Amino acid sequence: MLSGSIVALITPMHSDGSVDFASLKRLVEFHLANKTSGLVIMGTTAESATLTFDEQWQVLNAVLEQVAGRIPVIAGNGSNSTAEAIAKTQKFSELPVAGFLTVTPYYNKPTQKGMLAHFQAVAAATDKPVWLYNVPGRTGVDLQAETVAELAKVPNIVGIKEATGSFERLEQLKALCPADFVLLSGDDATCCDFILQGGKGVISVTSNIAPALMAQMCAQALAKEQVAAHQTDQALQALHRDLFVESNPIPAKWALLQMGLIADDMARLPLTRLEPIYHSVIEQALKQAQITIQE
Asked: Which reaction does it catalyse (predicted)?
């Protein structure tokens, strides 16, 4: 069962916008060394919307070869086109991925009925596990708990990344879905309490920057060590907040550059580099988490 601190990994890029595979290798080793429980490749934070299919395939292949089964690697397979999501799922299923993270279709604004049919069709395209991904702030649609419960009847739909940050939604999901349906937070700021209240982990942006602390906090929360988990999470709260001062993953890439883990903080247009007015904000958040940056 997928649990703990799972990173929504960035895709490092050279100044010309091409994928930086040397930096990608450093990042994967960073997570393997710091007890990250799993890697999500080609999620939102990876800028999957602006990476070609060939680039996505190459990145997945590189990561899977390096990880060599040591921790689960989950592939983002979402699209606002059901046919495209199916095609990606079928192709990526040829790789030894542990499963798929499938985002709600964005821009189209489908109904609950439309999303139900979309996820059923995508899940039918693979025999690997599928985790739903609900992030209304990005997609413009909200996958309701009743729809999730219906999708939980599909044998290989095994859980959800729930990014609303709503504890009311968490309680609804717990009440309506089977006990073994994996509830993962998609909201770093509230993930500690999400886990303490019954969630199994988080698919995290903050884990890009502070994997060891995130792994520690998740382990404490899963063990119901409430005081210790909150203490650890307190050191991370500035990162949870400030990694979103501009659109994700812009701040995360700048932070990783300061840490010496990537060679450039380049993002694909229409995303740009972090504005200088926010540099000190991210530096302060790193300092609060006791993360060393290069001079």
From this structure: L-aspartate 4-semialdehyde + pyruvate = (2S,4S)-4-hydroxy-2,3,4,5-tetrahydrodipicolinate + H2O + H(+)
